[in-house]
Amino acid sequence: MIAYLVRRILLIFPTLFAIMLVNFIIIQFAPGGPIEQIIAEIQGTAVGAGARVTGGSGTETSGGSSQAAGQGDSSYRGAQGLDPEFIAELEKQFGFDKPLHERFMIMLGNYAVFDFGESYFRDRTVYDLVLDKMPVSISLGLWSFLLAYSISIPLGIRKAVKDGQPFDVWTSTVVVIGYAIPAYLFAVLLIVLFAGGSYWQIFPLRGLVSEDYDELSTMGQIADYFWHICLPVAALTIGAFANLTMLTKNSFLDQINMQYVQTARAKGLTERRVLYGHVFRNAMLIIIAGFPSAFIAMLFTGTFLIEVLFSLDGLGRLGFESVVNRDYPVVFGTLYAFTLLGLVMTIIRDITYAFVDPRIDFERRDV
């Protein structure tokens, strides 16, 4: 197992390099880099997603410390009438006066020591921005993850035991409906019904807490927090709940039909002892193996539309605004950090897999 882990850890480096290289190359073909954003802001034609660009010779930038990516051509569209020296100064401030390969290598060198530089347009470091937005995404992802698994695993087991019976049929209808409705569409439905859209105004529509949160008692703050996250968490849970329920059911059905289960029953063991003493451990392997990836997915992906609909300022919204505004240090910094986190969580998944079932030997399989 140790040799396998060493190989997987070493594999992280070329994987990260390839991902960053591919995205760096792709971004070269994206029109409207940060310098064009500033030019558009100066000329009053900018269209952004939340971050306001500051134009002029005193533009706040990272001084090229992130060396992310962008157009290296100085003939920017819309730059007619502007001083070429001003354009050259902007290129130097953003670090675009260097060749592409040099910018890429400087970026990787900085990221290797977790120096992600500063946002082009927010006058803050990428690290501080991520830390500032992290609580919102953690709140949504963590509670959605716990709620989805708390409901889906017992329900999936029950459906497997009652396979083909009325309970399985009507719960399958609910699961199919949940699977068919996208999270953002379900969020709109919840807003219309319960957030003052057209019917009842039971839950708030904006923010993670109320404006008077600091003035509330401890219990009041806890209640206020859960009052605000109720609808967005419910919207995020619906899709994961459906998938996980069917995965649990099918996993248990596969094990229930195995020969060792028939043998255990023939020995006179009760159904409960057979289910939780024999079937549960084997059936849960595929569920446990998916814990890390599911947790990361709940935490950092698929939340943008939910954050926008409920006016939550989290990582999903930050990533979208950064892409639209061509804030490359934020785009590449978060890409690097979350890719690294995902690769590490994959290794943790394998360790968990081997811990749950000691029969699994990764040494005998290829990485």
TrEMBL record:
The ABC transmembrane type-1 domain, residue ranges: 134-353
UniProt KW Cell inner membrane keyword: yes
CDD domains tied to this protein: TM_PBP2
Positions of transmembrane segments: 9-30, 136-157, 169-195, 225-248, 283-310, 330-356
Ranges where the record places region Disordered: 53-75
Compositional bias of kind Low complexity: 59-75
Pfam families: BPD_transp_1
Record's GO cellular component terms: plasma membrane
Principal location listed in the UniProt entry: membrane
Membrane topology: Multi-pass membrane protein
GO biological process terms on file: microcin transport; transmembrane transport
Family: Belongs to the binding-protein-dependent transport system permease family.
Protein name: Microcin ABC transporter permease
Naturally occurring in which organism (per UniProt): Minwuia thermotolerans
